[in-house]
Amino acid sequence: NPTYSVGHPAISSSGDTLFFVSNIPNLGKGKIDIYMSIRKNGKWGEMENLGSKINTDKDEMFPYLFKNDVLIFASNGRESGKDDLDLYYSCLSNGSFSEPQRMDELNSDTDDFGLVIHENEEVGYLTSGRAGTSSEIREDDIYKVEFIGRYDLELTVLDKKTMEPVPNIAVKFDDNVEGVLEASVIKRTLQKNSNYVATTEIYGYMSASKKITTIGKPFGTIKETIL
């Protein structure tokens, strides 16, 4: 349509959901908004505005869907007094988006946008106008980002009869690293691509063990239970 623009396509890994931006009149919340379209029976549906949870009265651009459940985008409408683009992310769950969070460690005092992340979650690339190039005139350049992810274990021991958490639990790990007990939950960090065996040591209960692994799992919180 000659009256508006459509661009910045980003498609889900399943190939049936497309995110993009447009300055189409009447449908938008601001100047440039992020939209989505769903393909059913081989046909793309109508463009759907992502709503005020994502879009502001200014510009939201460069959407990117990571792992099918994290929408990363750039916006210049979420910080008062700032006109440059900053990176944000919002988690998709049950068809709705969470409140966008600013990616402070990646943003600068100029435009930052176009972040993409490799599926191994260790490396990404973004475009930025920040200083640091040999050019006297500040231009947009591509930067490489190295992500340091972590695994946080939350281990609960349940009573087999009541299926309620056992208080004052003690758990021994085969790597001899102790966890911290917080409200009947043992917490500790785990290493990438590693296997662990956790064994309970609780007075009045028989010992029980469980294998815990981070192999093939994304960074984040791992919740496990032992009966």
Structural account:
This protein has 227 residues and is mainly β. Helices cover 0% and strands 46% of the residues. Strands 1, 2, 3, 4 and 5 form a five-stranded antiparallel β-sheet that branches. The radius of gyration is 23 Å and the shape is elongated. The termini are far apart.
The run of helices and strands is: EEEEEEEEEEEEEEEEEEEE
Beta-strand portion reads: over 45%
- Average pLDDT reading: 92
Please count the helical segments.
0
- Helix fraction, binned, reads under 10%
Main sheet characteristics: 5 strands, antiparallel
Structural class, by secondary structure, is: mainly beta
Tell me the total number of β-strands: 20
* Silhouette: elongated
- CA-to-CA gap between the ends? 61 Å
Radius of gyration: 23 Å
How would you describe this structure in keywords?
227 residues, mainly beta, five-stranded antiparallel beta sheet, 46% strand
Summarize the structure.
This protein has 227 residues and is mainly β. Helices cover 0% and strands 46% of the residues. The protein contains no helices and 20 strands.
Topology:
Blueprint: E1 6-11, E2 17-22, E3 33-40, E4 43-44, E5 48-49, E6 60-66, E7 70-75, E8 86-93, E9 96-97, E10 101-102, E11 112-117, E12 123-128, E13 141-146, E14 151-157, E15 171-173, E16 180-182, E17 185-190, E18 195-200, E19 209-213, E20 220-226
Parallel strand pairs: 14-20
Antiparallel strand pairs: 1-2, 2-3, 3-4, 3-5, 6-7, 7-8, 8-9, 8-10, 11-12, 12-13, 14-17, 15-18, 16-17, 18-19
